[in-house]
Structures are given as structure tokens and as C-alpha cells.
# Entry
Amino acid sequence: MTTIILKPHKEESLLRFHPWVFSGAIARVILDAGHKGDAPEEGELVCVQSSTSNVLGVGHWQVGSIAVRILSFGTDALPADFWHTRIRAAYKVRESLGLVRKDNNTFRLVHGEGDNLPGLIVDIYADTAVVQAHSVGMHVCRKEIADAILATVQQVQNIYYKSDDTLPFKAPVTGDKIGWLVRDTEIPESRDTEEFWSIENGLSFRIDWLRGQKTGFFIDQRENRALVERYAQGKDVLNMFCYTGGFSLYALRGGAKTVDSVDVSQKAIDLVNINVAKNFPKAKNHTAVAADAFEYLSAQKSAGKTYDLIILDPPAFAKHRDAVKNALRGYQRINAKAIEMIRPGGILFTFSCSQAVDKEAFRLAVFSAAAQVGRSVRILHQLHQPQDHPINIYHPEGEYLKGLVLYVE
# Structure
């Protein structure tokens, strides 16, 4: 196995079980004797050692600032049952949390570093697992991963691989980045997700992993959607950036007086209407609109429209640290518009899924928005990602979803 030798004192983060080795920490690379080429291949397993030759762990090599993602500490090889052991451990956590139920067949099985499998995401939708690789190493191991999922999760009969947008753009990847890894022979190879439904907390959602964002659904808002349901009774609700209507369905089930769902994508709005019709076929208190968020809020304000409860769950405004300043301005602007339209005594659910924006900066942006429009607000809840999106205590970077529930006076 190729060996990565670190510079003096650069092993300290690995001794604290942080799973990343940065390229700047590497002193030299000793290639395996039978290695082809003059550098490690992307995705290959490498052994990481300190400057004094102590074995620190084994992980996947990748060109870039994060050069190695550690899979196992204190060893120079992975055991034969590695994938089955790690997938089984992740599943046991979900079982212990009560997420595997008849009224809930939707959950995240593997959350990267949070489940000691950096670079891997696996979401379960009824009988189908959707796998995403965020590293070349996980792409190389996709078949072993699929085998371990099938052996562990009884409800899974099909495994779809969707890594065309998540693998490093310039990486020399061989093999398909998208398509079926495992498929029930009774369904067509191009399974029509138009007819595929998954259940979350008793509500049915049509999941389109072929064309939808991420793996097809935002499982990470499950607990926060349930909280909206608790607050929705008798309220006029606005769900901005609604995607396929997750928050809207929970608000309807919670007894909302009216629910308006808004998203810039007409395809998303079409799915919202399908989901509402499936769960609430007689509902007449729901409206879905395809519109730009800022333009919609401005138009509604001009028309004098107000709401009792507003949900802001925008896409990531900052995908990297260079964009943080602009992102914070965006969060302040959108929250100011929303706070202006909340009736006295109303509630705002506001979120950021930008990993580059920390929770203190996000809170400051929201409070600056409240001050800008002259409203007094109180924090009722501080929200984050759910239990099946765990944060490795040694990898604080895994905390990405931030939310506030505010009482607006």
C-alpha cells in the first residue's frame, strides 16, 4: 500500500480522530512497489504515518486540499468485513432512534463523517436506497457499499447511484456516475419516479431521485417540519423556497387556516400540488406559486398581505467561504422582507444550510434584519440537523444546518 508521510507535528489532528489529512501536512509519498505512475491514483487506499513512522490510519487518497479521508484509525489496512460493519453500525443507530417504522420508511442511512464513512451519503426511500459519493474513493467502492446495504437493510430492494453532481469535477473517474447499482428485475431500468412514493411520519411524498435536488428530498428537515405542524393550528402560513412541499404538508396536517407554497421551480410546484392532492385530496386552503422569492415577497407586501407563520428554507447562499459576505447580506435581506410581513405575535422559521456560514453569523444576520424593520423578536427554538444526520464530535465541520424559530412582536 502507498504510504503518506506527514510533516513533523502534523499528526496531532489525526490523534484527535479528525478524519481529514490536508495536502499541506504531507511531507512525502512513498508509492507501493508495484504502483503504476509517479503519484497515487485518486480513490486508492493509502496508509498515513507520522514523521516518526507511527501508523495513524488508512483512507482514500484524492487530489485537492483534502488529500486523504481516513476510514480507520490506528491501522494500515481495512478488514474484509469493513463495509458491512460500518453500514450495519449506521443502521443500528437509526433503529435505536425509532426511525425505521411502517409510518416512516424515509431516513438517512449514512451521513459521511458523522457515520465514520467520509465522502458517502446514503438515503433510504421505501424500497430504494439512493447513494451519493462525494469522493473518488467512495465511487471506487460503490459496489461493495451496495452489497453491504442490501445485506443490512431489509426494506431495500433497489439501489440507485447518483453522483454525477457530487464527485470532484476534474477527477479522472471511470465507470458510470449515475444509474442503478441494484435493480428489482420486475421494474423497468428507467424506473418511473412519477409513481414512486415514500412515507415520512405518516405523510406520503413523491420522490424524484432522477431529476430532483440532492437525492430527491430534504430528509434533514424532518424534525423541523414536525415542529411547524405543532405551531400551524389556525394560522395563515407561507412556505418560501418550498421545493416539493414538505413544510406545507405538515402545516396542513397541523390545522393551518391557509398555506401558500412558493418556489422558483415550476417542476417543484407541480410536485407540491401532487403531494398535497395525495395527502389532502379535499383541501381547498392550499395555493402553490412558481415565483422568485424576493419578487414574490415584494409583491405581497405591496398588496398588504401578511401571515401568522412564515418558513424560510433557502438553498445554500454560500457554497464556499469566499461567498460568505454576500450570503450574509442575502440572509439579512430575505429575513427582513419576511419579518415585515408577519403579524404581531407571529412566528418565523428561518434556516441556513450553508456550511460556510456559522450559526453566530447567521443569527446576527437575522437579528440585523429584525432591527432593520424595527420589530422585536424572541428566540423560541434553535434548530439543527436531525438524528440521522449526526455530527462526529471530532469533526465539527459536519454541522451545517442552522435554524431559528422566532416570535415576532
About this structure: The domain at 2-73 is CATH 2.30.130.10 (Archaeosine Trna-guanine Transglycosylase; Chain: A, domain 4). Residues 209 and 215 are 5 Å apart (CA to CA).
